[in-house]
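Field: COMPLEX_INPUT
Field: COMPONENT_COUNT = two
Field: RESIDUE_TOTAL = 897
Field: MODE = joint
Values follow.
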Amino acid sequence: MVSGLAHGQNPRMTGVRAVILFDFAIINGSHATKIADLFGKVRVEMESNRQLDVNECIRMNHDALLHVFRNCADIVFRPLRLTDDSEILLVYIEELTDSNKLEQIISACMISRDLNRLAQYESVTRIAEVVAKVLKGGTAIFLDGRPFAYLADLTAFKQRAINEPSNEAAIRGPREGFTEDLKTNLSLIRRRISHPSLKFEKHQAGELTNTEFVVAYIEEQVKPELLQEVGRRLQAISTNQLLDSGYLEEFIEDKSLSLFPQIQNTERPDTVSASLLAGRVAIIVDGSPNVLLLPMTFWAGLQAAEDHYERFIYVSAVRLLRLVLAILSCLLPSVYVALTTFHPQMIPLALMLSISASREGIPFPTVIETLLMELMFEGLREAGLRLPKAIGSAVSIVGALVIGEAAVQAGFISAPIVMIVAGTGIASFAFPSYSLALPFRMLRFPLLLAGGFLGLYGVAIGVMFIIIHLVTLKSFGMPYLKPVAPIGKNFWKDAFMRMNKRFVPAPKKQ
Amino acid sequence: MKRIGALMVLLLVTLFIAGCWDRNEINDYAFWIGTALDVSENGKIEKTAQIAVPAGFKSSGEGAGGGQRGNIVISASGSSIVDLEQQVQDKLPRKIFLGHRRSIFIGEKLARQGIVKIMDQFTRNTDTRMRTDIFVVNNGEGRDLLNINSPFNPFSAIVAVDQDRFCRLGDTALRDVLLDVGRDGIRPSMPMVEIAPKNKQEKNEIIEVKSVAIFNKHLQMVGEVSGRESLELFWVKGVLKNEFLTEETGEGTVSLYESSLKKSVRTEIKGNRLKAYVKLEGTGRVLENNTDIDISVSSERIPLERKLNAIKAKQVAATIKKLQQQYGQDAFGIGEEFHREHPYQWKKLRNRWDELFPKVEISVTVKLKIQNTGGIGKRVPGIGERG
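Field: COMPLEX_OUTPUT
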């Protein structure tokens, strides 16, 4: 369930859920009953507390909050008694609060008794809202005799510094990357687009995590239908947790069974800004440095951020190279296997003879050989990905030796296969987008089998299926291969190649 | 979803059950690189195959001619080509693969007997590559050629193809021969290879391509032209792209490298008289000038060009005459020119072309242009200087 923070939680809805939980517990009976029963009870009590309004009596508030926050060691209750016997209660989370500011407020209240100073803060009348804000790092200030609480935003917590995004490094262009903090991330975007039509719509999802996320767009550029569609899909989310933007992506993507990513993700604020300016929508989730960009096209995955900073002729050449490498990373092993085992006519004689010379005495059929080596390579890559750097290099050396030298020396694997696998590996690293490289990595294997069983015929069928899928795929109403299929007016401007910006008008609302 | 799953299973099952796949590892193929066809003593056809042995040339990189040949040569004799192929197969542990055959050598004896019987199989068999080069072995057996150990390539069949490409006799492929066979106004011709005599230091034999075999309508070899004449034959035929010319001008020799050679033939039918005007063109550069002519001066170059043209035209006319008189075969394709320009009259001529061709009056004009005089105008400075 998602709702704007301003409206608070819908108490009736959650109440109904609690009742359902209760029913479930009764029906289930036996062992599980007890736990569920307890859980249900807690739920119900909590909900009843949340519906409460802030009482004038500070003690009542204290009790109510204590009840909500029982066994929460990180929540600090700090009752203060002023000289005139009036009481103040501060509720906050120690680690999320800037203690200096807090002390300032306390001293202001106690020494100068300037309680009016608190009026600058938001006043909240419902306990539920107080709870929500405190959990987000706010400081609740209850004053005796006032039926509301002040909520001071004194949030300060330790966070990662803004680093260069290691997965999307660029030679030229800004080196900032998003961090895990939503506010920092928003500021990074706002600094690039200083215009009031850049909108940040705040939402919240996850009944337990209460994660905030922001839908960003530029009002002048974005198509209203796209915004509506995004809103509709976000409304439909029902989850109690939202730990990363990846969670959100799975809930709102068009085809969850497709291998191809339909929502782009990036760690670069400049990429996000450029996309926003092109009329796309960004979703920034608190706690995740990966921002979602939608709709995504296939070509976006083949474009790096610096494509727009480097000179356009070079960029166009590099983009073509990337496309060729993308195709190679998918097709090289299967075409090799198909050609050598089904269509030796198609290989030039000299090449063929040297292939067959190096294959002399190899025990496996070419398909099996290639499959083995590809699996080995993928294993090596997966193993190297998560190992500490010191061990990682050792693994890659061992892997290179095992795969490159020893296997050929021992006569298990023929030398051309090593070249093919290495070439495929290099080609698959040429993708600027990691998530677009994944489907190509995976599709290599079914294509390899098709090539091994049916030759080029099988490869052609496989490729046809992939293309049919890509052509029918849509991301938020945008054809995945646009502007190539269907061909669009931007075909020459920013897809295969990039034109000089002088000749490309700034994107307008379509 | 269920239905799709069932369909997938069905598809997979058909794949495995049907067993109709032609997967074959590269190492289960015996690559047939060259064929030689000869007549055996008892009058049967003898077929010899040069087959690649991949394990052999793995090590051949290290020591040139170091024992390992990289190929084996297998012979079989019988009456039909397909039967022979099967006989060769019986001697091999791997499946023979014709898709990479580079050349076919026909022994001169067989060529003179006629190769109609052989050609039929080549046109029918879909495994045959139409770009396979075809040669006649001059004064020899095709088998001997396959047995040659060339220092350049483990396969003498490939050496012949490569050599054919650079010896300027065009490269005549099976396709060209078959095309010529199918037409009435031209008779096929094929380059001839011969084994050059060994000299003392040479361990290996060398192949030479220097003449052209001329066939008649029934695909029997009737004769050959060699050297300069063979180049002229191909020039008039329109196959030759460039050549080196050395002409004696009377004051010394001049050598030219002529490129972008062109021919154009006009034909004329006047009653019973058939006339053809052959015009040969080329532009070239001077490579060697042993005369005292200063080519850089137009007033001296133009007369030289005229002289060269006249000499060349005489030579070409003589070659054409030789073919008309001696062999009576239209290897030039003059008949095709008649066909093109007089399609209706051609219908009456086509069946009698072998009788008519020797009587055709052919006049030759040559137009060679000197475009580049080389580094210097006169000969080496100081020689041939005129005061």
